[in-house]
Amino acid sequence: MTEHAFYPIGTPGQPWGAAEKAEWLSRQQRQRSYAEDVLAAIEPLRARFDVSEYGRLDYAPDTYPLLAVRSRDWREELPVVLVTGGVHGYETSGVHGALRFLREHAQDYAGRVNLLVAPCISPWAYERIHRWNRDAVDPNRSFRPDSPAGESAALLRLVAPLQGRVLVHIDLHETTDSDESEFRPALAARDGKPYEPDSIPDGFYLVGDTDNPQPEFQQAVIAAVEKITHIAPADAAGQIIGSPVVAHGVINYPVKQLGLCAGITDARYTTTTEVYPDSPRASPEQCNAAQAAAVCAAIDFALARQG
């Protein structure tokens, strides 16, 4: 028997209209500062990298500059590595793992790859510790030409000139307990669908691309992260979040079909990380370190295969 969770906005079975979305928006409160946590952390990087504004979100009364960090020694003959974080603003280590990579590891790849890092794609949601943007749209289902999410559209414009040149794209995410307590029930309520409970995997895992799975690449990333934090096991059905486990800590999604960030390039090597910060076995430090280690492992594997 399917359980139905009560969500305090809307009428069960009916998709939200403007009134329900307005009620949802009225409940969202700023809980942390994009300027203090992210923009201030990017500022010192200007001494070693080129920092540019690739878009601006006008969410009155606030505006949010979207910043990208690039290799200063960009060379046209080098492969491009794209690192994205904070597509879902509440997934904290995606943002801070990307910043940690820039601070501590990015210089190791100078002259070997062109780095392009967008550490916080959804700053409004970062401040409110939420999955959606201000319009109750999930940016990570919105990476398509007619995107309804300004966050997604801005990143697509940033990446467009690099199509065909990206070797690696790693998109940094988390799976949290609030996925099951808040965000999945909210999604069901917003869309007028029944809520179907699922379990939260305890540990790190990767989401590869069904159409380009690259199993050796995925396992190289898992092996590097496993030195820092534990890898999520399959559940009793052999699945993680409802998808079959295809290798240790790896599931696959059709990323382009779903409009996911990991599908915005035709990179040979793509993956989405999923850290589990609510585990009693993982600290915020471990989560940030795991994200940075995943980026390094992804680049190292790709460069080794480049010869």
TrEMBL record:
Superkingdom of origin organism: Bacteria
Entry cofactors: Zn(2+)
Record domain Peptidase M14: where: 30-307
Keywords, sorted A to Z: Hydrolase, Metal-binding, Zinc
Keyword Zinc: yes
Membrane-spanning residues: none
Family, similarity comment: Belongs to the peptidase M14 family.
This protein's name: M14 family metallocarboxypeptidase
Organism: Tahibacter harae
Organism ancestry: Bacteria, Pseudomonadati, Pseudomonadota, Gammaproteobacteria, Lysobacterales
